[in-house]
């Protein structure tokens, strides 16, 4: 899909300086620009690249005044960075603007869906599924029986939604993620083997949630595993059965949350964090990367370490830890002097 400088300027409410008919069909960094690409200049540190770039169009601030002749067409705007971000969002919307049902697909009995559905090939929709308007389900996806999906959701290729799951409006789930698989529940027997505990609950994902690739959210043993409004989960995250994650909490990649833990709203959790089961994490808690959480955390706490403790204390302790070899040498020297 190609866009002219005039069309882009219209979207951004900018002014064209150069060829209004210049066309672009791809995006690039300014230092890597090539013919047919669109780039932007917002940081003065990169000013020199505007004179050598091979990009066809560059978005710049209105305050930018070139010192030398330019071959690139400029679109002048109030804020080049914000305008480029706006254009990325627009481009993404256009790219994802698919509709219709590709073949082969399987749509089971009593499925209902709204206008604007896109269902990619080799997808399966189970019985009694309810799908809202403007939902995009990309190829090789699985939607189990009795699933409910709200409006304006996007499920990228290879998403698996197990039966009974409930997903709200404006949710995005990336490729390879599994929603509603069995919780990890087994009862030990006297002979050392295990009986599986049936997992008969479900998963509820509220509005405006985004879940990265290859994450897993387990169904509850009883009741629901709940992801509240506005939660953002990175790639490769494990959320166990009966966990609840509060509104607008953000969790980075490779974090694991054990069963029945309740996490508050507006928390920030770094990558590779491990959180034990049956804990309560208060609102606004911040957990630094690679921390191990084995106890409840109060509202507003910031912790680090494994086991994790107060972030300020951790930083002070780490200074001493780094100096431990020197301190030991000093101690050995003192012992020798005393002898």
UniProtKB/TrEMBL annotation:
EC number: 2.3.1.191
Record-linked Pfam families: Hexapep, LpxD
A single GO molecular function term of this UniProt record: N-acyltransferase activity
GO biological process entries: lipid A biosynthetic process
InterPro entries linked: Hexapep, LpxD, Trimer_LpxA-like_sf, UDP_GlcNAc_AcTrfase_non-rep
Keywords: Acyltransferase, Lipid A biosynthesis, Lipid biosynthesis, Lipid metabolism, Repeat, Transferase
One GO CC term on file: membrane
SUPFAM superfamilies per the UniProt record, alphabetical: Trimeric LpxA-like enzymes (SSF51161)
Pathway named in the protein's UniProt entry: Bacterial outer membrane biogenesis; LPS lipid A biosynthesis
UniProt key word Transferase: yes
Catalytic residue list: 241 (proton acceptor)
Function noted in UniProt: Catalyzes the N-acylation of UDP-3-O-acylglucosamine using 3-hydroxyacyl-ACP as the acyl donor. Is involved in the biosynthesis of lipid A, a phosphorylated glycolipid that anchors the lipopolysaccharide to the outer membrane of the cell.
Similarity-based family: Belongs to the transferase hexapeptide repeat family. LpxD subfamily.
Subunit structure: Homotrimer.
Name of protein: UDP-3-O-acylglucosamine N-acyltransferase
Organism (species): Flavobacterium orientale
Taxonomic lineage from the root: Bacteria, Pseudomonadati, Bacteroidota, Flavobacteriia, Flavobacteriales
């Amino acid at each position: 899909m190609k866009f002219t400088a005039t069309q882009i300027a219209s979207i951004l409410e900018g002014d064209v300086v150069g060829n209004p008919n210049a066309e672009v069909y791809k995006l690039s960094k300014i230092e890597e620009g090539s013919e047919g690409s669109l780039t932007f200049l917002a940081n003065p540190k990169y000013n020199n690249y505007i004179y050598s770039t091979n990009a066809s169009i560059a978005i710049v601030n209105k305050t930018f005044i070139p010192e030398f002749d330019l071959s690139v067409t400029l679109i002048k705007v109030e804020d080049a960075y914000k305008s480029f971000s706006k254009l990325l969002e627009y481009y993404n919307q256009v790219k994802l603007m698919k509709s219709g049902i590709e073949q082969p697909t399987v749509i089971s009995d009593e499925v209902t869906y709204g206008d604007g559905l896109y269902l990619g090939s080799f997808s399966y929709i189970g019985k009694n599924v309810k799908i809202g308007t403007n939902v995009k389900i990309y190829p090789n996806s699985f939607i189990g029986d009795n699933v409910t999906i709200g409006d304006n959701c996007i499920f990228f290729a290879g998403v698996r939604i197990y039966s009974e799951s409930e997903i709200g409006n404006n949710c995005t789930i990336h490729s390879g993620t599994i929603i509603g698989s069995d919780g990890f529940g087994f009862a030990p027997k006297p002979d050392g083997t295990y009986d599986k505990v049936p997992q008969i609950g479900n998963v509820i994902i509220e509005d405006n949630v985004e879940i990265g690739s290859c994450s897993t959210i387990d169904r509850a043993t009883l009741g629901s595993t709940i992801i509240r409004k506005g939660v953002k989960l990175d790639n490769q995250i494990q959320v166990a059965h009966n966990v609840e994650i509060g509104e607008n909490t953000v969790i980075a990649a490779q974090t694991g949350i054990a069963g029945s833990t309740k996490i508050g709203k507006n928390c920030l959790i770094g990558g590779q964090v491990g959180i034990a089961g049956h804990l309560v994490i208060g609102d606004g808690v911040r957990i630094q990367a690679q921390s191990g959480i084995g106890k409840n955390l109060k509202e507003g706490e910031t912790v680090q370490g494994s086991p994790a403790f107060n972030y300020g204390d951790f930083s002070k302790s780490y200074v001493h830890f780094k100096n431990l070899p020197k301190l030991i040498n000093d101690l050995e020297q003192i012992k020798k002097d005393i002898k």
